[in-house]
Amino acid sequence: MKRLHVVLLLxxxxxxxxLVQTSYESRRLFxxxxxxxxxxxxxxxxxxxxxxxxxxQATHLRVEKLAREKLAMRTVTPAVTHFVVDxxxxxxx
Amino acid sequence: MIAxxxxxxxxxxxxxxxxxxxxxxxxxxxxxxxxxxxxMVALGFLALLGRAVYVQIVASDFYLAQGERRFxxxxxxxxxxxxxxDRNGLILATSVxxxxxxxxxxxxxxxxxxxxxxxxxxxxxxxxFDERLDTRLTEVVLKRQLGDDAWRQIRALGVKGLRxxxxxxxxxxxxxxxAHVVGFTDIxxxxxxxxxxxxxxxxxxRDGQRGIMRDGVGRxxxxxxxxxxxxxGREIQLSIDxxxxxxxxxxxxxxxxxxxxxxxxxVVIDVVTGxxxxxxxxxxxxxxxxxxxxxxxxxxxxxxxxLTDVFEPGSVMKPFVAAWALESRRxxxxxxxxxxxxxxxxxxxRDTHPHDAMTVAEIIQRSSNIGAxxxxxQMEPRELWELYSNVGFGQRPQIEFPGAVSGRLRPxxxxxxxxxxxxxxxxxxxxxxxxxxxxxxxxxxDGEIVPVTMLRQEQPVQGVRVLSPQxxxxxxxxxxxxxxxxxxxxxxxxxxxxxxxxxxTAYAQDGADYAGNKYRAWFVGMAPMTQPRVVVAVMIxxxxxxxxxxxDVAAPVFSQVVQQTLRLLGVPPDLxxxxxxxxxxxxxxxxxxxxxx
Lengths: 93, 597
Prior knowledge:
The complex is a heterodimer. Helices cover 77% and strands 0% of the residues of chain A. Chain A is mainly alpha-helical. By secondary structure, chain B is an alpha+beta fold. In chain B, strands 2, 3, 4, 5 and 8 form a 5-stranded mixed β-sheet that branches. A 5-stranded antiparallel β-sheet of chain B has the order 10-9-19-18-17, with helices on both faces. A 3-stranded antiparallel β-sheet of chain B has the order 1-6-7. The radius of gyration of chain B is 41 Å and the shape is elongated. Chains A and B meet through helix 1 and helix 2 of A and strand 3, strand 7, helix 10 and helix 22 of B.
């Protein structure tokens, strides 16, 4: 009987320690997921911002201005476009 | 010895307890002292027990709440506002993370060096900063909508008393070109204008909430309540094509500057789907930097003239009168009409280039007021009213946009004969540019008027029949004549595409009267004429240099916008084009009538 009590007591102590360890581990992991989630949100927001910025740098207004002023390009008109007939598409009609 | 030891306590027991066997250590303590101590200790334990009962049972709620306050932290998770994108998925408006920076004046302390750096990062002047601090409040907002990078740098400075609250700022990559369509939000991200206002319900999100527990070192260890995820706003896809929008904006801007005009607008409608491909106004503004304009400048720049400004459509109405005269079989395109000057109700009707007689087609081509009035006077007032009303005049356009006006079309019962004659050439009623563009879809769609929309529409849309297909085609031929030699708008011709349309010029209204020297010029047309794909309407307000007629001022804008739009939509040219791929002639790629016609 006495031995059983000792075994049970040891088991209890072990279980308590395991519980402490597990809850510590779970809290640590929770903190980690939380950080990861915050990082995700931050990166998402950053991606949004960069995408908007990229587009703001490449608006038609800006591209056109640079093309005209720096590269001396001009707008395409049908007069300077060579239209070709797609033979395969024509044959398929 | 034993006997003696036993004897000693018994000898003293009457007065005190013996605590030691050695007589030297035996103090003569009175028994009440020990009892007193016992009682005091017991009372102490009782007090502790009582306190424990109080804390655990009586006031447990209070203490639990106090405990929670120390390790539980509840906060809102801001939802981001939905994006607005164009038909090809390019961003027109999006929310980017930003911070509102607060300064606690009681805690604030900074070295001159820190202060200088802080001002630089905030983009503020010293006086501006001092003005903010000159208050009785303990905490002030230093800066709204500060980017994450700048905030990280500010935090690294180590200035005491600063904190930031995360939030979102609206960013408008297309800037001024699409400002009137997209609109803007206030500092709380609520829509104030344009699509931002029209779709506020869809765009706004719902903030989430989280309750978390922290341990002693501030790490998040668990959820305290079930987290409510934020519901982000819905994405709105518009029918606008940023490229077409840009071209329209650019051409209108250039025309306004070239003719030293007050303002200008252009609308491009896809006649197959009823989608508005572009809606541009000049002057415009940068939605994100509108704070730099004063109130007067801003209200001028923010006006969505294409939708909110109404004016008398003038000659643009003549094709409708001609169409109805054809539809009701009163005339045929080549019927000759007497166009010598005549009076209605004592008021003479005149033409700028009078002729004695013209065919119906010539009346449109040369924009004869007399001819149009003669045709209209053959009709019942009700017929004309119904026609105008069927093509959308006097009615608010069914478009998802704030501020779209209905214009004015008086009930026919109040018309006098002079009113009816003037209505034939577009006076006595008012309409917005969008209404005119939409009305012209009747001719472009073989007699059907389409509902217009600002939202992306995949499928062709069902129209409402107003005219028979043959009549619409006949009128289209007349509209094409307008842009050919002998018409009023030869400068509307587009390279490679057949076009047709109608010019309009009217005195701009100055208060209740007409201003003698101020004009409004416009052109509404379509292309390609064999099977129209787009209707483009252009309006230039008060041009002062280089002519004031619709054919001189608005038609060239129409030509360029049409050309680029059709090219972008992949519509093959329907006219032969003289090749200009030789480098020298490319420099002069102006429309050449001899080239294709």
